[in-house]
Amino acid sequence: MSMDMFLAMLLIVSVLTGLFTEAVKKTLDDFGKAYCSNILAGATAAVLAVLVDAGYVILAGAVLNSKMAVYLIALVLLSWLSAMVGYDKVMQTISQIRR
């Protein structure tokens, strides 16, 4: 896997995280379930990172080796981090606008 492919996968996960998180939140709201938005966004990002990586392995016919494991770990961590930072920055902006 090249660095360009890794960055493309990170972009895909970042975009899908926002969409899937909103869909899950809407579903939980419809069922009246309580949730923590930050944890939900992070968990969604981690799951999507694993799924996107699995899709790459299957479609590209890549071999699961130590290099791919490092890429997967990095993808999960960076996806989780971008979900956490993105969510916090949005909340911070909203709170600043409300002042």
Write a brief structural summary.
This protein is mainly alpha-helical and 99 residues long.
Report the average pLDDT across residues.
Answer: 88
Number of helices: 3
| C-alpha end-to-end distance | 47 Å
As a percent range, the share of strand residues is: under 5%
How many domains in all?
1
What proportion of the residues is helical, as a percent range? Answer: over 70%
The beta-strand count equals: 0
Keywords: Membrane, Transmembrane, Transmembrane helix
Transmembrane segments: 39-62, 69-87
Word description of this protein:
This protein is an all-alpha fold and 99 residues long. It is 86% helix and 0% strand. Helix 2 runs antiparallel to helix 3.
List key phrases describing it:
99 residues, mainly alpha
Q: How is the secondary structure organized here?
A:
Elements: H1 3-30, H2 37-60, H3 66-98
